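[User] Once you have settled down, look closely at the record that follows, and write a paragraph about the fold.
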Amino acid sequence: MLISDYISPESLVARSVNIERDMGDKNTLSQYFLTAKGTEIIYRLIAGLNGSKISAWSLTGPYGMGKSSFVNYLLALVGPKSRAETKLAREMLREKDLSLYEKFQEMLSARRIVTRGFFRVAATSSFQSVNHSIVHGLNQSLNFYEKKQQGNKNNRKLCLEAEQLLSKDLIDTRHMVDLFNKATNEFKAPAVVVIDEFGKNLEYMARNPGKGDLYSLQALAETNDIFLWVCLHQSFEEYAVGFSSSQLQEWGKIQGRFEDISFIEPRAQMVEFIRKALLRKKMSPLMERKIKKWATVYHNAVKRLGLTDTESLSIEYLKGFYPLHPLAALILPELCVQYAQNDRTLFAFLCGGEPNALPAFLSSKTIRPKDDNLVTLGLDQLYDYFISSIKTISSSRPGSSRWLEINNLVEGTKGLPENEYKIIKSIGLLNLLSGHNGYKASEKIITYTQVEPSNIGEKQIVAHKDILDSLVEKGILIYRACA
C-alpha cells in the first residue's frame, strides 16, 4: 500500500487566509494553531480594552509568517457569542491559556458585550487609498449585518451611506469616522478594525501623495471604542522611500498612537505544526507498531551517536514526524525562514503539488506489510525540493547566491554512486545551516542522516564512515576541524 493510504497532510492549512473572505468560516479557523505569540497579542488587546492608552497596534513580520491567520482568529474571538467560529476561537483560547481566557471573559462582562461581541471590520488592502480599503471593509460588515437583520431601516441607511462613500474618488476622513461612530452606536458595541496588507496602502500613498490620507489612521485610533490593527511585512521606514516630507511628518505623529508588535513565530512552533499537519488515517495495530519501531530506532541512534541536541525528543514525539526523517523535520523550519517564505513555504512543502513536495512522496512510496524498513523522506529529498524552489525566487533574495553556489558544487558530483550522491546533497543542505540550531555537517550528523531503521548498528556506522573517508580521499569533501 502507498504511504498516502495511511498518512496525508491537512490540505486546508496550505490555503492562504484572506480575512475579508474567511471571517466567519469555521473550517478555515479550525486549521489555526494558537501560539504563544498569539496569546501575547491578546493580552495587549485586553489591556487596551481595560483602559490602557494604546488602542491601535501594528503587526510587523516577514511575508508568510502567519499574520493573516492570526488576525482572522482575532476577529473570530471577538465576534457574537452565538457564532460557530466565535465559540471555536474562545474554546481554543480556553485550552491554550485558561487565565487569559478568564481575563477575556471578564472584559466582555465589564463592557456588557458577552453575547453580542464586537462590531468587526475586516479590510484586505489593495493598491488604493487607505480610506477606500477601510470603507470597503466597513461596507462588507454592514451588509453582513443587513442580511442578519432584514428590515432594520437604520442598518440599511448605513449600508447606503457606505456605498456612497465608496463611489467617490476621494473619501473624506471625517465622513468615514462619522460613519464608524454611527455603526458602533447602532450595534451598541465597540469595533475591532483590522487592515491586512496595509503596506499596499502605503505604497499607493508614496506614488499618489494627493490621494492618500494617513491622518485617517490617527482619527480612528483616537475615536472611542475603536480598536485598530494593521499588518505589515516590513517596517514603515521600508515603505516610506517615496513619501513627501509632509507625509513623513504626518506619519511621525501617527506612530505615537500605534504600538508595534514584531510578529515572528519561534522555530519550535513551526516544528510542532509539522507534527500536527500530518494526519494519521485509521491504522492497523501492525502499522502502529512499525511506526513506533521506526521512531525507536531513530531515538536510539541519537543516543548511540551522542547527538545531545536531539536527545530530549521522545519516541512518542518522533512518531509524529513520520515519514520525515527527524532531522529533516527539525531543520525544515530554519530552511523556510532563512531561504524561503516562512510558514508559506512550509505549507507548500507539506501540502503542495510540486514534484518534490511531501504529497508526491506519500503517493509514490509503498509500505510492504512484511518489510520492517519504513521508507523515509531524508535530507537529500529536502534538498531537491528547496533547490527547485530557490530557482524561482529572485536572485536578490538573501541566501539565494549561497544556494546556487552549493548547487553548482553538488551538480558536479552527479556521476557518483547514488548512496554517495545522497550524502553530498545532505552535506550541502547542512552547510547552508551552519551556525543555525547547531546542526553542522559533522561526521556524527551525516551518519544520522543516512540511518536506515532496518539495520542500524556498528557495521552501518562504520560503512558510512568509510564512504565519507573515500569522498575525502577523492577531494570531494574536506574536513575542517573548526567548521
